[in-house]
Amino acid sequence: MKPPVRPPQETDFTSPTHGPRVSARIGLWLGIAFGLCFATGLLSHGIQHPAAWFTWPSRPVNLYRITQGVHVTSGVAAIPLLLAKLWSVYPKLFGRPVVRSVPHALERGSIFVLIAASFFELLTGVFNVAQNYPWAFFFPTAHYAVAYVATGALLVHIAVKLPVIREALTRTTEEPKPATGALSRRGFLLTTGGAAGAAVLATVGGTVPWLRDVSVLGSRSATGVPVNRRAEAAGVSTADSTWRLRVGDAEFTLDELRAMPQTTAELPIACVEGWSASATWTGVRVADLLDRAGVPAGSAVRVDSLEKDGLYRSTTLPGTHTADPLTLLALRMDGATLTLDHGYPCRLIAPSRPGVLQTKWVSRLEVL
């Protein structure tokens, strides 16, 4: 007669891959990834929705390209790290009693919140990179709000587990060797690090040009400058003879813009989804346009598009950027006249600024 089958217990899991030393080390890596992702995410949100005290520099020109690339890359690296972290601690699900005290219940509740918020952030971030939104909520608002929930739960978890973490990270005694054929603690850590590195390498090419040939999931910007929103979807068409650019109280035709002194600069477009691409832009300096219109140097302006109902049809260009000589109303890209999808007849291109704020089909610069 077979003995009765009992449910698994925490003590049944003896593999060193479930030990506190593994959990603490992967938790340290995961904390670094989450910290980078949270900090750079706050910067991106601040640039797009600035508080009165927030300022963002226009130089170096690649600054936003770097910070947003770090944001997406650290989020990608966190996915295998989170899965490995959960593997290392899942035997605790079988610990009995399930709840030993009120503090223990609060600790378990905070872990549940942390796991749920972390998966929400990482999965919605992946869908955003793929420009796929199978939900009804507005991604930026939800992603930003849940980031605070995840970070708060992480800080609570660290505070509760700090003595265990400190002891695990400083322990010098060797653990028993695993059974023959079983994965060792060192092997598991190396595998986890390799998985995180492979995930980063597969995606980071969207930001790092010299890795695009080997970055199989980051090649969206490998050829030219991608187009997130096409003119047809935006409901934009132009007639050269009737189009006018209004700057303050002045108006300029397309021919007048072309007759002005032109500036050429190589500048990147860096998207919130993590990809970026550089192009050579030629156009009129915004500072020169404001000067011709009698607008004080360094004035902030609102940039309006011919698009009627897009979320970013109107953006604010702060004085730091209007005064920068590399902030252009571009008329040409890579030596050719802008196509309609790239913003013809003119588009904004400013250094160190998210792609969603590089307004296309510009029709007006209104002084604020």
From TrEMBL:
Keywords: Membrane, Transmembrane, Transmembrane helix. Residues 240-367 form the Oxidoreductase molybdopterin-binding domain. The keyword Membrane applies. The chain crosses the membrane at residues 26-48, 68-90, 111-130, 142-160, 187-211. It comes from the Bacteria. GO terms for molecular function: oxidoreductase activity. InterPro entries: Mopterin_OxRdtase_euk, OxRdtase_Mopterin-bd_dom, OxRdtase_Mopterin-bd_sf. PANTHER family: BLL0505 PROTEIN, PROTEIN-METHIONINE-SULFOXIDE REDUCTASE. This is Molybdopterin-dependent oxidoreductase-like protein. It comes from Umezawaea tangerina.
